Amino acid sequence: MRTVAVSVVLIALSAIAVLTGLLPVSDVVHLWGRVWPILLFVTAITVVAELAAAAGVFTALARQVARGGRGRAWLLWLLVVAVAAISTVFLSLDTTAVLLTPVVVVLARQVGLNPLPFALTTVWMANTGSLLLPISNLTNLLAQQAMGDLPPAQFVALMWAAALVAMVLPMAVVFLLSRRSLLARYEPAARGRSSDPVLFWTTVAVLIVLIPLLVSGIPVWMPSTAAALVLAVAFLARQRTAVRLGLVPWRLLLFAAALFLFVAALQSAGLGAVLGRIAGQGESPLALLRLSLTGMLSANAVDNLPAYLALEPVAGSPVRLAALLIGVNVGPLITPWASLATLLWHQRLTAMDAGIRWRRYILLGAVVAPVTVVASTLALALTA
């Protein structure tokens, strides 16, 4: 409800800006032209992920991971890291933070391990692992547009080194912090079966077809929408109750739309000029660090989405946009509100009685985020 209330306030303020002429209607129309494909993709991929979870795909994946760990907690954890990375890269950070987190918590409890290292892995990987592909994060899709609809292969060529550093460093910290529990042994969980094999294998087939299409260069809203429709039809035929309006992330969509409008209004009021002086110019390593750290601080002050939108005009070139993405994607590890995925992750943990105290989360993030942002930005500067 807090998200809805904040969204309503932001929309009201944006409406006042439009009515007073501060935010021209033409700017709103232009903004809508940019964001509707992105919002449609977010809706479709969320529906796909929710139905995949209902079909038991993530649970089956967890069982496979548990067996693959061969009784060694460190190997099990590395497999969870790999699954979280793949989930983030190909299905977006929200899928990892929201849907994979309950799976890994249940997995850890089933084999008698401390669930917190696994839960911390999912939320950190969800944020820091979201640099590699345009579909990995909403900010990436916006940046891809600003780069002139850069093809996915070229986006990867620009981001791969920074993405690799951003994924490895936080995971190394998780291992060091939890090395005692991760060096233990466990008994693999018993095998299980899907309640509806037809739905399970239909969903697996849809995902196998969908993932390559998401990186093919086709506008991502097209294959994701088609996949959501196919799965919805399959579930209507075999498990009708799973298809409900609640599958659509209404609060997330409202919040994103409100942020888009509000930041556009702030830009019209002169925010861009102020941020331009703070973020600086140029593509030297120091200039890129200045921009990425500005993005990190802005994301933790408000949220990564408005931080990106506010700083996008002062980025300019693909390399500077990449540095900005490092700041707003990798940087939101400190405050709870820096990333909506983090808030949703914490809600899932609390519901499962496996919550982590925000004080501890903030202290850990305050150490990990700046180091990772700096290292990833330097990797970008060396390879761009």
UniProtKB/TrEMBL annotation:
Similarity field: Belongs to the ArsB family.
Alphabetized Pfam families for the sequence: CitMHS
Residues spanning the signal sequence: none
Coiled coil spans: none
Main subcellular location: membrane
Location of the Citrate transporter-like domain: 6-339
Organism: Microbacterium rhizosphaerae
Protein name: ArsB/NhaD family transporter
PANTHER family: TRANSPORTER ARSB-RELATED (PTHR43302:SF5)
Keywords: Arsenical resistance, Cell membrane, Membrane, Transmembrane, Transmembrane helix, Transport
Bilayer-spanning residue ranges: 36-62, 74-93, 157-177, 198-215, 221-238, 250-275, 321-340, 361-382
Lineage: Bacteria, Bacillati, Actinomycetota, Actinomycetes, Micrococcales
Topology term for the membrane: Multi-pass membrane protein
InterPro entries cross-referenced by the UniProt entry: Arsenical_pump_ArsB, Cit_transptr-like_dom
Compartment(s) of residence: Cell membrane
